[in-house]
Amino acid sequence: MGRLLAYQLASMGHQVAIYDKGDAQGLGSAARAAAAMLAPLAESVITEPSVVKMGHYGLTRWRELLRNLDEPVFFQQEGTLILWHRQDLHEAKRFSTALMRNHALMDFLRKPEELTAEGLKKLEPGIPDQFQHGIYLPGEGQLDNRQLLSSLHTTLIKMGVEFHWNTPKSLDEFDTSKTERWIFDCRGLGAKPAWDGLRGVRGEVIRLHAPEVNLSRPMRLIHPRYPIYIAPKEDHVFVIGATEIESEDLSNASVRSTLELLSAAYTVHSGFAEARILEISTQARPTLRDNLPAVKQIGPKALQINGLYRHGFLIAPAVVDSVVEFVDKGLRSKADGFEISFT
């Protein structure tokens, strides 16, 4: 959020300085650990219509944003494939019913397509025969979050943005009551002392290098506890995750979660058996009480932006554009249109 907002403001001619307790790579941030899937209809089963609306906006907006960066960022819009094992058929029916209901309410999204085994094979030839049915969500996408962080950094340097890495700051170090420069607090969980109700939701993510696996699009495997995703990036790198635990514990991943994620990947493609584990990481998503994003004005030119939860990359363009509209024109029409809490 901080880098994307800095990019938008610098593009408008503002002088921008970034203070970050981390480094240029974003080590230790939720943004670096994420899978960066852009799947508004898939997410509609577990979130609010406002998030779906922001996500739909983001699919188009990301193309515009990435086009002007100095380094290429992997972006695709080949849809999402939903799969399930026979024993999870009941849960799959519930998921499918929710998708169809949500599409009927939000017909700006493309209609889900129910697939038989033949349709699955045509769409993803590597899917094993045990999967006889699936649901395809056309138009959904993903990007490479780590390439994005790097490209934004490179672009911002060329734009003259001033960086202060490994420099944690608190709001107490700024006079938000009469500052002549805008201050934007995009610290995620770092803002917890200054934002009542902000909490972390733990997630565990595995990155694999699997040269024997060829999958064309993100997949979600219906699971009794949560839908597990497999997001294929460039060069046969796959991001696997989806665990949600109400905890800010950032200790190593549990054996249970690791086994579930790796087993799920193997059942989708046997080539994962020979994959190499590149990384097993844990992070906590910054989350507000209603699991929705919010903006707070804490001074004449001071805003706090937080609560992107598990939808960070999906909704970031909508949130950033809403903030920029307020800074540039003093308006909240975009925020109101996206139902973003702006107080």
Structure description:
This protein has an eight-stranded mixed beta sheet with strand order 5-6-4-11-12-13-10-14. Strands 9-16-15-17 form a four-stranded mixed beta sheet, with no helix packed on it. The chain has a three-stranded antiparallel beta sheet with strand order 2-7-3. The chain has ten helices and 17 strands. It has one domain: D-Amino Acid Oxidase, subunit A, domain 2 (D-Amino Acid Oxidase, Chain A, domain 2, 2-Layer Sandwich). The protein has helices spanning 2-11, 30-33, 40-43, 49-67, 89-105, 117-123, 145-158, 255-268, 312-329, 333-337; strands at residues 17-19, 37-38, 75-76, 80-83, 113-116, 133-137, 141-143, 162-164, 183-185, 199-209, 219-221, 228-232, 237-241, 276-287, 294-299, 302-306, 341-342.
Quick overview of this protein structure:
It contains 10 helices and 17 strands. It has helices spanning 2-11, 30-33, 40-43, 49-67, 89-105, 117-123, 145-158, 255-268, 312-329, 333-337, and strands spanning 17-19, 37-38, 75-76, 80-83, 113-116, 133-137, 141-143, 162-164, 183-185, 199-209, 219-221, 228-232, 237-241, 276-287, 294-299, 302-306, 341-342.
